Amino acid sequence: MATSRPRRLHALDGVRGAAALVVVFYHVSLIAQPFAQGGTAEAVWETATETPLKLGFAGTEAVQVFFVLSGLVVTLPALRAGFSWPAYFASRLVRLYLPVWAAILFAVLLVVAFPRDPAQVTPDEWILHANILFPDWVLALREATLMLTSYDTVNTLWSLRWEIIFSLLLPVFAAVALLLRRWTWTAAAACVALMVVGRVFDGRPFDLDALVYLPTFLLGCLIAVRLDDVIAWARARPRPALWAVVAFVSALVLIASWWTRPLIPRSSLLGDALWGLAGAGAAGLILVAICSPVADRAMQARPLRWLGDVSFSLYLVHAPILATLAFAWGDDQWVLVGLVGVPLSLAVAWAFFRFVERPSHRAARAAGRRAQAAFERFSGRGDGASDDARDASPDPTRG
């Protein structure tokens, strides 16, 4: 079933922006966590984390939203006639790596300018274990490959590793999604089952992160190949109550491993299984943003659209900024770190978007054109690919 739809799904910009801000709040909460022990502070922490309030700072789960978004919007151009794979690979890699390298340089320079004293922060916590204490250029170069499993210079880069893997495997993902197009619901259920298995058995005894994250991208690919059908179905059934229920259930599924903790310990097999459902919740929320007129209008609000524009930049720069403030003032001043660090991260993200990310977009388009021209010379083709095909390589949060 075909239907007219906008060339760009603007509501997804708002989803992306909201998810990026949630990740920022999540890292502020990690700085605050050591001080949520005993009395009123612990009660407040449990209320915030073991209820649906967790949605406001569910950082790892917000990354699952990014992964579904990437699966959806990176696949869409690949489904169009004239799509150029050589242009895609060149453009996509340039668009991912250039901002990452700039973010790593920014993070190291922050440590050079503002030396970090480990005595200023709580031992054995995120602030100390996931952030560098001194300029380490060798580590920075290693992390710049995006091939490591953990990152300390820019903590958020762990997710970019999966973006790179997905980007390189896009032909496989797109082909699988097309082959399973007639059995979308069955394929989606299989993806969720794989994610649950990955969470439950990760580290018992094997590392199964690939089962946790790669099926999340495939959920987005499955939405992409059925997008016109999904939009047509939703337009024929404009039911606000239905989409409100889907949004509510999806949000609860996204953070199921959190609000169930009073009854189901996180370290249990069932707790891990609930955590494995996060990708399904992320996919549900994205479907709501696409299909619900109410959600579409909400996600196109100007502040969220602006956040969507700078979301990748915000994702890259905020953790080094928060860490710098926490080491400078002490993590016991986490309220001040948050009050200063969040708006400062937004301001730096805007500058980073303007002076790093936008130029990287232009460099990516140029790289795509050169790759396509080289491919045509090598293959003897002279017809070329469309501009859409050459430029179809969005950033990992933009899709």
TrEMBL record:
GO terms for cellular component: membrane. Keywords: Acyltransferase, Membrane, Transferase, Transmembrane, Transmembrane helix. The keyword Acyltransferase applies. The keyword Signal does not apply. Residues 376-399 are annotated as: Disordered. PANTHER family: ACETYLTRANSFERASE, BLR2367 PROTEIN. This is Acyltransferase. It comes from Microbacterium oryzae.
